Amino acid sequence: MTTEQWQASRNNLKAAKRWVIKIGSALLTNDGTGLNRAGMQSWVDQITRLLDAGHEVVLVSSGAVAEGMTRLGWNARPDEVHKLQAAAAVGQTGLVQAYETAFAQHGRHTAQVLLTHDDLSDRTRYLNARTTLRTLLDLGVVPIINENDTVVTDEICFGDNDTLGALAANLVEADLLVILTDQDGLYTADPRSNPDAELIFEGMASDPQYAAMAGGGGALGRGGMVTKVRAATLAARSGADTLIVGGRIDNVISRLHQGDLVGTLLKAGQAPVAARKQWIAGHLQTAGVLTLDNGAVNALRTGGRSLLPIGVIRASGRFERGEVVECRDEQGQLVAKGLVNYSLTEALKILKTPTSGLEQALGMVAEPEMIHRDNLVVL
Ligand SMILES: Nc1ncnc2c1ncn2[C@@H]1O[C@H](COP(=O)(O)OP(=O)(O)O)[C@@H](O)[C@H]1O
Ligand SMILES: N[C@@H](CCC(=O)OP(=O)(O)O)C(=O)O
Q1: Same fold, 3-272 and 284-378
Q2: Is the ipTM of this complex over 0.90?
Q3: What is the pTM of this model?
Q4: Where does the PUA domain lie (predicted)?
Q5: What confidence tier does 152 reach under pLDDT thresholds 50, 70, 90?
Q6: Looking at ligand 2, which atom is closest to the CA of residue 68?
Q7: CA dist., res. 232 & res. 119, Å (int)
Q8: 50, 19 in Cβ contact below 8 A?
């Protein structure tokens, strides 16, 4: 590839509306002597500029264990899981305090979001996390996600925050995942042991050669490059490109935003919306059937619209909010699949109901759509 082609890809990133930015332990923790507050303020200043330019940012931040160790006066990372969990619990408060203080300089609020594996594999919790994050973004608040280290066990933890960052990118359907770390990007081999290794500027997330180049992490980080490259493949499932880049590069986030050629871009390789829909279609089993009138079938097929309760004439199966249901026409032909916003019991109460009648029928309105168009795959 030529420099012009690389540059063209970077220019395209300016269109990325929703960013997930992951900041790793290796960067955040000043070589184990507390939080790198100057670095944090600089990233926060740059994130604020992104927000002011109309982008949305979800932050995934490590650093709880390292900050907890500093607060507790521990020099070495303990091996016992319970001690690590205790350190994370102590450190997490310091971490969010530091971010809240840094964002307060710009009059912005932050929100602490602690997630576990279970939260993202259980459909209802997945959808609730998704709705909360979307609501926070709408409010202009910066969600700061970390793993809920207190409750996880070895078997069911993300462990590294690269994976969590990728799953967060899936969760909020981000356009771009930025992984800030202590190296300038992905090199052809681990630069700590290979001084001749070269920086990769761009590739496809699905290309297996990158996993072969990636090695493990340093003393503070958990996953190394292996988990960052894997995160890029996970993020690509919902259409997000991934940028692995050095957090110590001057003004790194602003430079990415301007299209500067820094770090390694691992491209998702398919249009985000198509990828997202494929993700819905492929990852969740159907739990029920909604029968649509002709108007609703047309709205979905030709108008690319959301499915409203008024167009649903029958509902069957056993489904809860957040499960995938089939949408069929009156002849029984499959029209679409999507994530439903209401349980079967609720759906039965709002068949053929206009939006204005939902509150009376249900006593509350979760969402005006039976299925939002972003969550609908027309077949
Ligand atoms: N091919 C590679 N290119 C760049 N860095 C690599 C590579 N293989 C392994 N690494 C190592 O990965 C480390 C970053 O991962 P990690 O320590 O987990 O940091 P973080 O806390 O930011 O996730 C780097 O310090 C680097 O030594
Ligand atoms: N949840 C842990 C983060 C784990 C971690 O260090 O991950 P990473 O930054 O990907 O190497 C913490 O806050 O300490």
Answers
A1: no
A2: yes
A3: 0.80
A4: 288-367
A5: confident
A6: 14
A7: 21
A8: yes
State in Å: Cα 370 to ligand 2 middle: 38
Cβ within 8 Å of residue 106, ≥6 positions away: 44, 45, 48
Binding residues for substrate: 62, 149, 161
Question: What are the domain boundaries of the chain?
Answer: 3-272, 284-378
Per-residue pLDDT reduced to its tens digit, 238-254: 889 999 999 999 999 99
Question: Distance from the CA of 208 to the center of ligand 1, in angstroms?
Answer: 18
Residue among 61, 83, 148, 161 whose CB has most ligand 2 atoms within 8 A, to mutate: 161
Fold observed for domain 3-272: Carbamate kinase (3.40.1160)
Overall average pLDDT of the 289-310 stretch? 94
Q: What DSSP assignment string belongs to 111-149?
A: EEEEE-HHHHHSHHHHHHHHHHHHHHHHTT-EEEEEE-T
**63 in ligand 2 pocket by Cβ < 6 Å?**
yes
Task: Give the residue ranges of the annotated binding site for ATP.
Answer: 22, 181-182
The third-level CATH classification (topology) of the domain covering 284-378 is: 2.30.130
CB of 222 sitting under 6 A from ligand 2: yes
Q: Which residue has the tokens 């944090």?
A: 40
pLDDT digits over 30-50, tens only?
A: 766 689 999 999 999 999 999
Residue-level pLDDT at 282: 62
Mean pLDDT of 225-231: 93
Two tokens, residue 233: 């493949």
Percent of the chain with pLDDT over 90: 65
